What does this fold into?
Amino acid sequence: MIEIKHKATGKLLHRHDKESFSGSLITGVDFTCADFSEIDLSGCKLHSCNLSEATFRGSTLDKVTLQNCVLRRVDFSTALVNFTNFSDNVMDLCVFEEVRGIGTQFRHSKINGASFQRCQLPKADFSFAEMRGTNFHAAVLAKANLFGADVSESDFTQSDLRDCNMTNAKIFKADFNFAKMAGSIGTNGKPWGSSVKADPKKPWWQIWRGAAV
It folds into this structure.
């Protein structure tokens, strides 16, 4: 049996009757301020749960799926998130500092104002995620998919973005100083730093037409 308690008061929020969360489906539970620290939730599925201000610090979340959950201000620091699915969730102001995992999914999630400092999330999928004002300082995101993501005003300083796909991403006022960008695809679908060059031999209307395609 595993007991999940309130991180401040110690009040019992949920009693899991099995010895492991593996393969379990937990639906509609209010886990506000729950303490999941150091717990192994591998293979668990959380559906329509309120996890606001909960802590998963140091937890193992490998192959966990969180679907239609509310996850505002959740602390995932130092957690393991291999192939974890965070897609389609509201995750504003969450903390993912120093998390580690490969193939982690954040598709279509809202993660505005979050912190991913010093995380290691190679091959993560952030496609179409909303991550305005998010801190990715010194993050390892090699081969990540940022297709269509909104990272406006986010901090990518000293991050590893090698071989990332940023096609159609919104990067208004994002800071990429000292980031590693080798092999990355820029917002225009071309190698990072390249731009569409006009052919001076073409009439002006053909130059404009080619740049717009």
Remarks:
- The helical segments are 204-212.
- Strands lie at 2-6, 12-16, 25-27, 34-35, 45-47, 65-67.
